[in-house]
Amino acid sequence: MKKIRRGDKWFKYSYMVKSTHLAPHMPKTCFFTAESLQKMITRYGEVILKPVIGSRGSGVIKVSFLKENGYEIHTENKKKEITEFENVVNHIKKKIGSRRYLIQRRVRLSEIDNRPFDIRIIVQRKKNSRSWKVTGKVAKVAGKGYIVTNITRSKGTLLTVETAIERSSLEHISVSELTAKIDQVALLSARRLTKLFPHHRIYGLDMGLDQKGHIWVIEANTSPMMSHFRKMEDKSMYRRIKAYKQG
Question: What percent of the chain has pLDDT over 70?
Fold first, then answer.
């Protein structure tokens, strides 16, 4: 049961959003129903649907309201326009089957050459330690035409966070100040999640920067992949993450 809950996006979100410090960084999220989809689309115009249990960008769907032209459904790198809301719901239900899904406000991520990017941050602590540390962070830039930043799925690219910010529309913001704030939110997230999983020692946080530089926690992972850091030319973060895992 505990292992299932570690992978349950709703279980983690619903606990994190109750923190007064983290709430401003958590995009509005709820369970998918026809009624909740209509409310979220009306409020935000664009939403992301994703499975409650899932990883690596699998099953992610973006739904956008197109005003006079109905709705657009964007899956992987394919787009489809549907005129009636009822048909949108039927299309989604057919696509997701019996899987439980969440609806999340779509954060308009900062972009590099019209491609959105987010940030994977690894936060760890050593055995018998209460002190959390950011041991690695990397920017994932989505492949052309994709909504997900998963590198394998979207054929995207990896950059250092500093390089990504400098190349993005956020170039006017202090890189050092922004990265310090990212680390702060990541550490707050790890400390909050420790109350749910007191013996856990590593989290992988997918965090986004919107077009004003506000930091959002898109998702918290309890079993993060290390492949991003292994692929970086500078292997120092990868070595540090491995050292923390062992110690």
Answer: 91
